């Protein structure tokens, strides 16, 4: 055996320099830019997840980043549980899809996204003020509104029943065109009340949920906004005992007799079923109900038309529920995570996602409301043209309980304070003042 | 070997005798040490999955909403002052107590019925009656939801067919409470039945024969033989069921989501709404821990009674 040659100081230095230079010349492998784990929302619309996977794979190949995707369902609030668990454990996916209120709930653990928002806004214009309300915390955006899962909840009604029983031609008042038709200005919550009464008498009551699920809270919240009724103002003061709240409660008092008796126990699927089964003349929902009607009950599906909500004394408010893509501050690959979010939010990718979801997804920039999908979806052609908010609608995006500070608003929203007030008045035998007094006590607890 | 140690083997001729075992060696050969070591994996699992989460939940319940400040029992004090939470306490107690009483009563009756039918048929019936308990609760509750569905209720369809009006199963406070209790009873009664049936089978037949010779009636046999002999199993089953029923989540979550007007919320569903959905995890933890001391005291007394009776029987 020969003894090993001793390593000279010069040789050791040369070896060290070579090792230090190695990263500069190494060959890029599939995971050269590191790994990224993503928890996207598991889309309702069949095929939407496939397009998302395809897009991520394209980006992954381009940037040499190894991506792993999990589609986490919102059924049973599994996505909320995943977020809560990852926030507690300070480990998990790099990117998560955060439902409406979850950015605020986890703001301290989210990486600022101001740079991404700034670049995208420079390209595509401003986003809805709701986005700022829900994701800008202490002057910094903590997440980027996602395309996937973000939705509006405008009315979707039966063309035939409205023409015959209400005397409204939905396709001419709300055409699939850049301008609204004659009579648009008369589409108010009072007109809604009259239409609800006529349809109920004709045996097709409006399918407006009044329980404790989000569909109920969203549309009720938009009516409160239309009447300027705030439970808690932006400063956090309780303002439920106001003339506006009393006025909107009076409005609901008039509406309730026209609704099905069981709306107090409806969940988020009940209104869909009411439309699909042909029992209801109008619901307020994303186009998923129409899409299922086209598949399961085509005679109903081909007579549905989506259009902007009615206006109230303070304007026309439409429920908008954005999802957000956020990056944990304990992520191992923040740069790549932000790059992917930015790339997915670009117009080309956004359009592919919206098309894959048959127009269900709503991009955060109004400049993207010209995607072809909303004009091309059928039957009937143009049925969801007015699903995204367009300039001619003069609508304002609404999230129930705004402008209360978000940590208070989330409680008003999730504990369905508004629908409970109406329920106490309509079925609990309470007066409007008693319902307001009850809400006052609840709100004192929320603002502690 | 009453001292709990294993006797050392006698030394073999031709084999070099070794030094008396040291302290550690002796310790390792004690039965209690071996038993502890064998139970160690289980203890580790309990510590990891029960003790740690419980202590962590207690810690969480003593923080403020943003989890940045220790507030002691502040969350509990706050909750007790809230009318909604007071209603949740009432509903949870109503739900758990009425469901457990009904489950125990129905389980007891079914167990007697099963005990008195021939064993071949008993096997089939026993299997059929256990189905509600075996099917995952979330799935079976969805089935119930379809039966109660506000617009398309199968129950209402039958009622309407007989000319009776529809019932707002989930839309009116007391009907909604009735519905969630009904589903819990349907789900839990088979567990009571199988436990009581096992207890009934262990009651010596001679006791009934002796009582019959003495002229005891069926009621007297029930009160003076069956029930005293089943006391331990009844106590443990009721305790176990009470804890599980207080912690029930699936039924209310699926059927009513706590509505109408929060009138069916239980501790678990309210904790979920406050903690996970509304982003106040410390308050949610406080809600979920609210029954812990009460149930712990309850469990202590029941288990003490069971131990005492067991010792009396052994002695």
Can you give a write-up of this model?
The complex is a heterodimer of chains A (448) and B (315). In chain A, the strands form four sheets. Chain A has a five-stranded mixed β-sheet with strand order 2-1-3-13-6. In chain A, strands 7, 11, 12 and 14 form a four-stranded mixed β-sheet that branches. In chain A, 44% of the residues lie in helices and 12% in strands. In chain A, α2 (48-63) packs antiparallel against α16 (347-356), α12 (270-276) packs across α13 and α19 (417-426) runs antiparallel to α20. Chain A is an alpha+beta fold and 448 residues long. Chain A starts with 8 loop residues before the first helix and ends with a helix. The longest helix of chain A is centred in the first third of the chain and has 17 residues, at 9-25. The two termini of chain B are 22 Å apart. Chain B is mainly alpha-helical and 315 residues long. Mean pLDDT of chain B is 88; it is low at 1-16. Chain B has 14 helices and no strands. At the A-B interface, α3, α4, α12, α18 and α19 of A face α12 of B.
């Amino acid at each position: 055996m020969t003894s090993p040659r001793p390593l000279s100081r010069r040789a050791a230095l040369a070896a060290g320099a070579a090792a230090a230079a190695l990263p500069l010349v190494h060959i890029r492998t599939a995971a050269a830019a590191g790994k990224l784990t993503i928890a996207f929302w598991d889309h309702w619309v069949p095929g939407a997840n496939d397009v998302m996977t395809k897009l991520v794979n394209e980006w992954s190949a381009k940037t040499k980043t190894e991506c792993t995707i999990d589609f986490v369902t919102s059924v049973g609030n599994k996505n909320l549980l995943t977020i809560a668990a990852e926030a507690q454990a300070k480990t998990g996916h790099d990117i998560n899809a955060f439902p409406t209120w979850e950015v605020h709930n986890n703001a301290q653990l989210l990486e600022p996204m101001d740079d991404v928002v700034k670049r995208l806004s420079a390209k595509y214009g401003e986003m809805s003020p709701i986005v700022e309300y829900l994701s800008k915390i202490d002057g910094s955006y903590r997440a980027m509104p996602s395309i996937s899962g973000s939705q509006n909840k405008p009315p979707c009604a039966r063309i035939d029943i409205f023409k015959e029983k209400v005397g409204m031609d939905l396709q001419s008042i709300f055409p699939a065109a850049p301008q609204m038709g004659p009579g648009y200005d008369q589409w108010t919550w009072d007109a809604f009340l009259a239409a609800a009464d006529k349809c109920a008498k004709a045996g097709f009551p409006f399918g407006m949920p009044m329980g404790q699920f989000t569909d109920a809270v969203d549309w009720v919240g938009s009516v409160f906004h239309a009447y300027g009724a705030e439970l808690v103002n932006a400063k956090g003061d309780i303002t439920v005992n106001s003339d506006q709240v009393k006025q909107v409660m009076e409005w609901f008092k008039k509406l309730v007799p026209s609704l099905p008796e069981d709306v107090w126990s409806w969940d988020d699927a009940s209104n869909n079923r009411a439309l699909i089964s042909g029992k209801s003349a109008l619901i307020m929902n994303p186009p998923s109900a129409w899409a299922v009607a086209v598949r399961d009950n085509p005679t109903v599906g081909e007579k549905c038309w989506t259009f902007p909500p009615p206006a109230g004394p303070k304007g026309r408010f439409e429920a908008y529920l954005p999802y957000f893509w956020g990056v944990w501050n304990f992520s191992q690959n923040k740069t790549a995570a932000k790059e992917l979010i930015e790339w997915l939010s670009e117009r080309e990718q956004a359009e592919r996602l919206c098309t894959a979801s048959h127009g269900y997804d709503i991009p955060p920039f109004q400049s993207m409301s010209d995607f072809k999908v909303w004009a091309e979806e059928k039957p009937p052609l143009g049925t969801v043209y007015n699903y995204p908010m367009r300039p001619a609608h003069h609508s304002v995006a609404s999230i129930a309980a705004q402008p209360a500070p978000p940590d208070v608003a989330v409680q008003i929203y999730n504990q369905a304070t508004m629908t409970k007030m109406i329920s106490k008045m309509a079925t609990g035998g309470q007066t409007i003042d008693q319902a307001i007094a009850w809400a006052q006590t609840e709100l004192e607890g929320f603002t502690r | 070997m009453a001292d709990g140690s294993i006797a050392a083997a006698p030394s073999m001729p031709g084999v070099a005798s070794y030094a008396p075992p040291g302290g550690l060696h002796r310790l390792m050969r004690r039965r209690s040490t071996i038993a502890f070591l064998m139970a160690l994996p289980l203890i580790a699992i309990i510590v990891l999955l029960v003790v740690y989460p419980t202590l962590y939940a207690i810690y969480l319940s003593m923080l403020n909403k943003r989890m940045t400040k220790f507030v002691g029992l502040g969350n509990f004090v706050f909750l007790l002052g809230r009318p909604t939470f007071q209603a949740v306490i009432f509903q949870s107690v109503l739900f758990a107590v009425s469901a457990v009483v009904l489950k125990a009563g129905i389980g007891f009756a079914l167990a007697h019925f099963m005990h008195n039918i021939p064993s071949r048929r008993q096997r089939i019936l026993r299997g059929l009656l256990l189905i509600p308990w075996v099917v995952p609760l979330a799935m079976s509750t969805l089935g119930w939801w379809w039966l109660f569905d506000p617009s398309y209720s199968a129950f209402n369809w039958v009622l309407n067919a007989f000319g009776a009006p529809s019932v707002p199963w989930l839309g009116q406070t007391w009907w909604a409470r009735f519905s969630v209790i009904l589903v819990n009873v349907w789900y839990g009664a088979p567990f009571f039945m199988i436990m009581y049936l096992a207890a009934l089978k262990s009651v010596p037949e001679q006791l009934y024969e002796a009582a019959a010779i003495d002229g005891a009636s069926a009621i007297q046999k029930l009160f003076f033989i069956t029930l005293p002999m089943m006391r331990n199993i009844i106590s443990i089953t009721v305790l176990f069921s009470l804890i599980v029923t207080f912690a029930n989540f699936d039924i209310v979550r699926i059927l009513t989501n706590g509505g109408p007007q929060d009138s069916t919320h239980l501790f678990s569903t309210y904790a979920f709404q406050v903690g996970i959905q509304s982003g106040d995890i410390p308050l949610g933890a406080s809600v979920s821990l609210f029954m812990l001391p009460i149930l712990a005291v309850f469990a202590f007394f029941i288990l003490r009674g069971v131990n005492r009776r067991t010792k009396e029987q052994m002695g």
